[in-house]
Every structure is written in structure tokens, then in C-alpha cells.
Amino acid sequence: MKYLVTGAAGFIGNHVSLSLLERGDYVVGFDNLNPYYSVALKQSRLNRLIGKANFHFEEGDLADQERLPQLFAKERFDAVINLAAQAGVRYSLTNPHAYVDSNLVGFVNVLEACRHHEVKHLTYASSSSVYGANTEMPFSVHHNVDHPLSLYAATKKANELMAHTYSHLYQLPTTGLRFFTVYGPWGRPDMALWLFTKAILAGESIDIFNNGQMRRDFTYIDDIVQGIIRVSDRIPSGNPDWSGNQPDPASSRAPYRIYNIGNNQPVELMHLIETLERNLGKTAVKNFLPMQPGDVPATFADVDDLTRDVGFKPSTPIELGVERFVRWYREYHKC
């Protein structure tokens, strides 16, 4: 199989690319190496791929309307895994246009390239943030998600809608994956686990929002990767039981599916911090703050559909995941 993996220098895209290569697939990695966070970290991730047999890297921007058709015509991809996006809830409050360019313009360019070049399956990253103001737990793909609380969340919901349109109009098989708080080695510096680790080691205070009354369905990177690849291998077909009278948001008469990928076991934020403190051998200086705009107090993934359809359920406990992250962080930073 020949895959295009967008966001190959990113946290999830880098791990997915490695796993595909390890099983013998051919991977073209695509990334614009934007400076939202350390380009040096992105380059270090890429260095894990460059030089491997069956890997080729293309630097470019999804928002470049001419670039993707040229690449697709040359490479003739069997499948696409779109993990490139402008990430971050809080950043979307101050830099909204970055999300429009990457997550909306870029995504429609991916859809157009897939439909014009006979791609067998497009798998793409959505986000647990689409659940927004929903409070019924656990979050189910069968719930309505029409009340996002940030522009980032709105763009991810828009991706799902855009994908459905292409599945309906052009019979392009698409699967959207709602990721729940992904963490682990080679993670993002703007995520809580990295920020906390850096501050604790430096003896600086950590900001704890909503006065610590937060719960997250932290999901280890290896579980995310296995979920992505298993889903990508399963090309969706239309749901014959779908009804327009009672429309199911997770499926369609078109070849379209949505899945959650989460650990299905929310963790109290204070428990995460205590686990991190034990692994670092240092106590954090805690700065308790109110809830931030665009944030939600809890996430909890219902993964029944994922388990039923691809036979997989994330299971890495937070204690093991944090231990592995800390070990990697110390090795990477030599601290």
C-alpha cells in the first residue's frame, strides 16, 4: 500500500508513519513545518523517518491549491491519512485565520485531490473538542455535536461535514477520528504533560485551570496509532439502516464513518499531576486558576463502535504512559 500521511513531522503523524513503514507500506510524508511550536522538534521527528526504505518526504502546505494535485498525480496513493492541522484550542482564540487556512482550505484541497485521483480511503483527524457544550457522558459518536466552544472545534466539526459531502456526492470513502487528549513520547510542547514536566524540572509553577476540577480521557500515542491504522485498513461502506427520519451522526447511506479513539477511562487532572510528580521525583508548585475560554471540564470517550468494527480498544494506563513520557523527555532533553 502507498500512503500519504499529512502532518508527518507532527506528533501523531510521525508515529503513524513509522508504524506503516514497519509493516512494509510505502509512505510519503507531507508537512509544512510551521513554527506554531519548535521546528527543531519537528525536524527531530522527521529524522526518525528520513533514510528509511519506502519513505519520502515532501515539504508543502495543504492550503496551496496547486501542490496537492501534482503530488497525487505523481504518486498515485492507495490511501490518505490526513493528520495535518492547526492545533490548539487556546491559540484559536487569538489566531483564527490560521485555522481557516489549514483546517478548512487545506482540508477541502485534500478532499478534492482524493476524489480526482481515485484514493480508496481517506482517514482524517477530528477531535474530542467537537463535543463542546455536550454534558452527557461518555461522549458518543451518535450524539449531536452542534455546539462547539472554540473555533478549533468548529473547524473539526466542519471537516466531518465536508467529508460527508464528498462521501455522498463522489462515493469517496471517508472516516473521521475524534482523538481524546493524546500524550506520549515525541508529544507536543503546548500540551499539559509537556508544560508540567518542563516547569516542575525547572522549579517553576504550573497553571492548573478550573482549580484542578478537570477530567481528561488521556490516550497514549501507541493506542492512537493502532486505532488509526486499523480504521484506515477498514474501508467504510454505506449503512443500510441509516434513516433520514432519525439520522445517526456517526454513519450515513454514503461510505462515511466517525469513531472516537479514547482511553475510555477519564483521569482526574490532579491524579495526572501526582503521577508526574512521582516519576520526576519533585513536587510541583501549583497555581490554581479559573476555567479558560473555550475549554471544557471533562472528556470521556465511548469507544463501543471502534471496538465492534475494528476489534480494538485503547488500554494503556496513565501510570505507564506518564512513565514512558518522562523517560523519553529526560533522554531527549538530556536532563
Short précis:
By secondary structure, the chain is an alpha/beta fold. 40% of the residues lie in helices and 16% in strands.
Q: How much of the sequence is in beta strands?
A: 15-25%
The radius of gyration computed from the alpha-carbon positions, rounded to a whole number of angstroms, is 19 Å
State the strand order across the main sheet. Answer: 3-2-1-4-5-6-11
- Report the order of strands and helices: EHEHEHEHHEHEEHEEEHEEHEHH
Low-confidence stretches: none
Describe the protein's architecture and organization.
The chain is α/β, with parallel strands linked by helices and 335 residues long. Helices cover 40% and strands 16% of the residues. A seven-stranded parallel beta sheet has the order 3-2-1-4-5-6-11, sandwiched between helices. It has a two-stranded parallel ribbon with strand order 7-10. Strands 8-13 form a two-stranded parallel sheet. The protein is globular, with a radius of gyration of 19 Å. The model has no long low-confidence stretch (mean pLDDT 96).
How would you describe this structure in keywords?
two-stranded parallel sheet, alpha/beta, globular
Sequence-ordered SSE layout with sheet pairings:
Blueprint: E1 2-6, H1 11-22, E2 26-31, H2 39-47, E3 55-59, H3 67-75, E4 79-82, H4 91-94, H5 96-116, E5 121-127, H6 151-170, E6 174-179, E7 182-183, H7 192-202, E8 205-208, E9 215-216, E10 219-220, H8 221-233, E11 256-261, E12 267-268, H9 269-280, E13 285-288, H10 304-310, H11 318-333
Parallel strand pairs: 1-2, 1-4, 2-3, 4-5, 5-6, 6-11, 7-10, 8-13
Antiparallel strand pairs: 9-12
Helix pairs in contact: 1-8, 5-6, 7-9, 9-11
